[in-house]
């Protein structure tokens, strides 16, 4: 479901990203394929430097359908950014991608807290993240971070995933599956 980013996937991902239902909500809204290719190269370099972790989201047959990134990694925290192409909306990919990525981050990297900033008008993302049992609204708990993401005219809600909450949640999920 997730794999490291590769440049040969950029054509498919760029075409999915430019859909009007997706484009306003991506972290890097590129205006051209060449710009998207450049940004992807930068992300690969940043991952090598340890400042971000970026993955391609795949469907069941291995086609790229979106991306998921942890960026601004600092003091065991980072920000999560995810987008999925419109043809794949409502099919459970978002939740599965997040769970796989969070498991990788919390079990394979030294990450304790993951922040998600969601534009107040992005109802689709808000509903999707609030379905996840390990995500909490963090506007008050992390007020300084909340203030820092709301310094422009664009308004965001801040959510977070703590390592302990996620691991407890997936332990419960795994127990339910086993019984």
UniProtKB/TrEMBL annotation:
Q: Write down the superkingdom of origin.
A: Bacteria
Q: Known InterPro entries for this protein?
A: Acyl_CoA_acyltransferase, GNAT_dom, N-acetyltransferase
Tell me where in this chain the N-acetyltransferase domain is found: 12-132
SUPFAM superfamilies, alphabetized: Acyl-CoA N-acyltransferases (Nat)
Per UniProt, what is one GO molecular function of this protein?
acyltransferase activity, transferring groups other than amino-acyl groups
Instruction: Supply the PANTHER family for this chain.
Output: GNAT FAMILY, PUTATIVE (AFU_ORTHOLOGUE AFUA_3G00765)-RELATED-RELATED, N-ACETYLTRANSFERASE DOMAIN-CONTAINING PROTEIN
Output this protein's name.
Alanine acetyltransferase
Species whose genome carries this gene? Paenibacillus albilobatus
């Amino acid at each position: 479901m997730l794999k490291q980013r590769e440049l040969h996937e950029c054509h498919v991902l760029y075409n999915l990203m430019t859909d009007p239902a997706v484009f306003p909500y991506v972290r890097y809204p590129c205006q051209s394929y060449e710009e998207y290719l450049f940004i992807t190269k930068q992300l690969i370099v940043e991952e090598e430097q340890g400042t971000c972790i970026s993955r391609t989201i795949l469907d069941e047959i291995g086609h790229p359908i979106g991306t998921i990134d942890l960026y601004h990694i600092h003091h065991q925290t980072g920000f999560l950014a995810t987008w999925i192409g419109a043809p794949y909306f409502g099919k459970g990919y978002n939740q599965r991608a997040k769970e796989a990525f969070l498991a990788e981050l919390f079990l394979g990297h030294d990450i304790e807290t993951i922040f998600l900033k969601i534009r107040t008008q992005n109802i689709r993302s808000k509903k999707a993240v609030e379905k996840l049992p390990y995500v909490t609204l963090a506007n008050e708990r992390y007020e300084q971070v909340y203030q820092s993401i709301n310094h422009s005219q664009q308004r965001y809600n801040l959510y977070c995933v703590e390592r302990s909450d996620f691991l407890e949640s997936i332990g419960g999920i795994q127990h339910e599956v086993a019984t």
